[in-house]
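Sample entry (201 residues):
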Amino acid sequence: MNQQYFDVIMQGGPVPGSSLTSDPDNPAPYEKPPEYTNIHEACQWIFSKFIEEENYVEVIQLMANDMPVMDITQVFLFSGFTEGKWDVNLMMLLAEPTAYILLALAERAGIDPTIFRGEEEDEAEEEVFFGNKISEEKLENLKKFKELGVQIPYLSEKDKNKIDSLPTAEQLDIEEEEEEQPQQEAGSLLSAPPPEEEVQA
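Predicted structure, serialized as tokens:
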């Protein structure tokens, strides 16, 4: 996931025109018809991948380490696109339900995830997903996931019930990263010493 994160978030998409140099007799997975064309079936597959033991531990660890939910969503969906799981159009439609699945897993694990970059600085209007701005209303709904009691879309009740059987972050020995406390600036050597406290008799 970390290498995929670097490839997608840091480097961006493929070099323009690279598809014109590919072998037509040996097309890449994303150049073939996608495996999923139905958003319900795609969401069920995404959920099943996230709750696999190895993937679940990694995803919870990433969210506990303050990797934004929308970044994980973008990396996962782009990886699925390159593997031929869905086309670009379905990939964009899957962004919101995938984010809600991650938020539900974070809630089960007992961690408070970061939704998007700059969340603490209130930069919702600047959040971009695959080059497209996400509406502030959608971001606010994601931030208020618990308060609004949003149900995970496109999943069956059977799948939703599986969340209750997943281990918490505490059971997995995963701890959230604590925010670094700002260090107090050391006083100048030339500044006056602090006043001594009066000792009462």
